[in-house]
Amino acid sequence: MEICIRPENAASLRVVQKLGFRYEGFRRRFIHIDGDWRDHYAFALTRDDVPEGVLSRWLSGNAPQDAASIPPSDRLPI
To answer: Which InterPro entries match (predicted)?
Structure first.
């Protein structure tokens, strides 16, 4: 499963952290929204990453400590 999130969307970034998504990279000018090309962060999660299932992970709160960790070189000022 992949999800791409605009850097200013703090609520969605918290969701991928809680679910334990892995950061995949920065997509510059990735999707055209509201008349402009917007940057996005990309995250992924596979079945092997969550054998117990995403819902079980969400309910248990046992995501890896470094989940959805964006490297400093990719962080944008918000």
So the answer is: Acyl_CoA_acyltransferase
